[in-house]
């Protein structure tokens, strides 16, 4: 069976950094095993799902380079869910319940007050036809629960958490369908996982108790559950998933000049025992990806770490990968010259401006004669090979200046700044004419 994973977002908002990490891991796991990666749009909640979010999810995945092999939408599968529902209901695995939310709340409070776990008491199972009819006559419509088999111990070998055991008697029969006929996520997800041949499910550890009940749903459908990996959640530097972190999406990172490769490199590794490394190509990350490397402690997401990593990745990007985002005249040598100084690709335009000019420099009185000499020397050196070394060597011999006193006034006059890319790489781009003009007092 082909290893198949899925990323299953609900299109009720933009993806945030936590979902993006889940998507990435599902994609990596599939790629590592030569398998398939599906995008499944969990849009059973018609009221909250919006097509603009579906579009945004697709765009975000494309920007990250996580191309799905197929896309499915739960809203296309309503008939299939209905048939399975009828089958499980006829087999007694799904039953109607008529309690109102207030009644359920009261039951929970009573149990908690007695120090007991708030497990649903299955009162609805005792209703006879007459009682059900009476509720319906009152105008009540049923919601539906899945009947857990209390004799079927629940367990799975989680790829991250190891052996997991749940006592079904300690769980409430989960509600799978609302009064208005709409679906909760649990059962449709299992039906799709079976139908789509999903072999591996990676998701956050907030889903562990869902997995426990879903395992029995797989069995009820006569299917073998997939393998599961439940990841420790993502937290910010302050130790929790803050509101801010929960709302950070791709748009934010793009605007901040973060490259998709940087997000991929960071999210592939945080929360694992492998170091975060600047790699512009995901192949080595995929190669080394292994759930055995994941820890149980939350993964810490640090935007500062992302920015630093981003700069290191920008320094690795080839001209071809960025050309469309550079000023039109900027060629490969220019990119290679400024690249080591960039934190973001967009900043290349600033350095290009330094090359193309005009630049403004404040020249100190004591440097004027020196720069006048430099202008003359610049006129007679060979510009073909390495003009910066030719210029500075000649000036050193001629003026006796060295170190900072030699280099800094030149840099200031030539670029208008006291720091920046290697002058040996920059000066050929500035070129003879512009250099002489900038050095001439
Ligand atoms: N739509 C569900 C969610 O976003 C999917 C969970 C899953 O991966 O099964 O939480």
UniProtKB/TrEMBL annotation:
Keywords for this protein: Aminoacyl-tRNA synthetase, ATP-binding, Cytoplasm, Ligase, Nucleotide-binding, Protein biosynthesis
Catalytically driven reaction(s): tRNA(Glu) + L-glutamate + ATP = L-glutamyl-tRNA(Glu) + AMP + diphosphate
Short motif 'KMSKS' region, span: 240-244
GO molecular function, one term: glutamate-tRNA ligase activity
Enzyme class, UniProt record, top EC level: ligase
Domain Aminoacyl-tRNA synthetase class I anticodon-binding: 363-439
Pfam families to which the protein is assigned, alphabetical: Anticodon_2, tRNA-synt_1c
Motif ('HIGH' region): 9-19
Compartment(s) of residence: Cytoplasm
InterPro entries: aa-tRNA-synth_I_cd-bd (IPR045462), aa-tRNA-synth_I_codon-bd_sub2 (IPR020751), aa-tRNA-synth_I_CS (IPR001412), aa_tRNA-synth_I_cd-bd_sf (IPR008925), Glu-tRNA-ligase_bac/mito (IPR004527), Glu/Gln-tRNA-synth (IPR000924), Glu/Gln-tRNA-synth_Ib_cat-dom (IPR020058), GluQ/Sye (IPR049940)
Glutamyl/glutaminyl-tRNA synthetase class Ib catalytic domain residues: 3-307
Keyword Aminoacyl-tRNA synthetase: yes
Predominant location: cytoplasm
Superkingdom, taxonomy of origin: Bacteria
Annotated EC: 6.1.1.17
Binding positions (ATP): 243
The protein's role, per its UniProt record: Catalyzes the attachment of glutamate to tRNA(Glu) in a two-step reaction: glutamate is first activated by ATP to form Glu-AMP and then transferred to the acceptor end of tRNA(Glu).
Similarity section: Belongs to the class-I aminoacyl-tRNA synthetase family. Glutamate--tRNA ligase type 1 subfamily.
Record PANTHER family: GLUTAMATE--TRNA LIGASE, GLUTAMATE--TRNA LIGASE, MITOCHONDRIAL-RELATED
Assembly: Monomer.
This protein's name: Glutamate--tRNA ligase
Native organism: Stakelama saccharophila
């Amino acid at each position: 069976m082909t290893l198949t994973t899925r990323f299953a977002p609900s299109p009720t908002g933009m993806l945030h950094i936590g979902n993006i990490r889940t998507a990435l891991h599902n994609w990596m796991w599939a790629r590592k095993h030569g398998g398939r990666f599906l995008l499944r749009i969990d849009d059973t909640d018609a009221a909250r799902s919006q097509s603009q979010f579906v579009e945004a999810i697709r765009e975000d995945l494309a920007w990250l380079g996580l191309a799905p092999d197929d896309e499915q939408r739960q809203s296309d599968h309503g008939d299939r869910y209905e048939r399975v529902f009828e089958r499980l209901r006829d087999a007694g695995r799904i039953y109607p319940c008529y309690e109102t939310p207030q009644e359920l709340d009261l039951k929970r409070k009573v149990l908690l007050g007695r120090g007991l776990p708030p497990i649903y008491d299955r009162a609805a199972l005792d209703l006879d036809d007459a009682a059900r009819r009476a509720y319906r006559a009152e105008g009540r419509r049923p919601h539906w629960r899945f009947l857990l088999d209390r004799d079927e111990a629940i367990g799975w070998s989680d790829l991250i958490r190891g052996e997991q055991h749940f006592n079904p008697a300690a769980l409430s029969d989960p509600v799978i369908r609302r009064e208005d006929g709409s679906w909760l996520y649990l059962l449709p997800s299992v039906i799709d996982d079976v139908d789509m041949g999903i072999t591996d499910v990676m998701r956050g550890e907030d889903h562990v108790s869902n997995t426990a009940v879903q395992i029995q749903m797989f069995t009820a459908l006569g299917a073998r559950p997939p393998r599961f990996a439940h990841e420790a959640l993502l937290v910010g530097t302050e130790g929790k998933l803050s509101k801010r972190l929960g709302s950070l999406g791709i748009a934010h990172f793009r605007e901040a000049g973060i490259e998709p490769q940087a997000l991929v490199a960071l999210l592939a590794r945080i929360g694992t025992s492998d170091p975060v490394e600047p790699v512009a190509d995901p192949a080595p990350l995929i190669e080394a990806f292994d759930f055995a490397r994941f820890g149980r402690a939350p993964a810490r997401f640090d935007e500062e770490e992302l920015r630093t990593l981003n700069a290191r990745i920008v320094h690795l990007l080839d001209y071809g990968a960025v050309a469309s985002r550079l000023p039109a005249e900027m060629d490969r040598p220019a990119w290679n010259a400024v690249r080591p100084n960039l934190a973001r690709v967009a900043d290349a335009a600033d350095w290009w401006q330094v090359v193309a000019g005009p630049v403004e420099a404040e020249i100190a009185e004591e440097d004027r004669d020196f720069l006048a000499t430099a202008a003359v020397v610049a006129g007679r050196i060979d510009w073909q090979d390495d003009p910066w070394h030719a210029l500075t060597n000649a000036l050193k011999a001629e003026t006796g200046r060295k170190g900072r006193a030699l280099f800094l006034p030149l840099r200031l006059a030539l670029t208008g700044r006291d720091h920046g890319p290697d002058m040996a790489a920059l000066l050929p781009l500035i070129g003879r004419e512009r250099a002489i003009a900038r050095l001439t007092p």
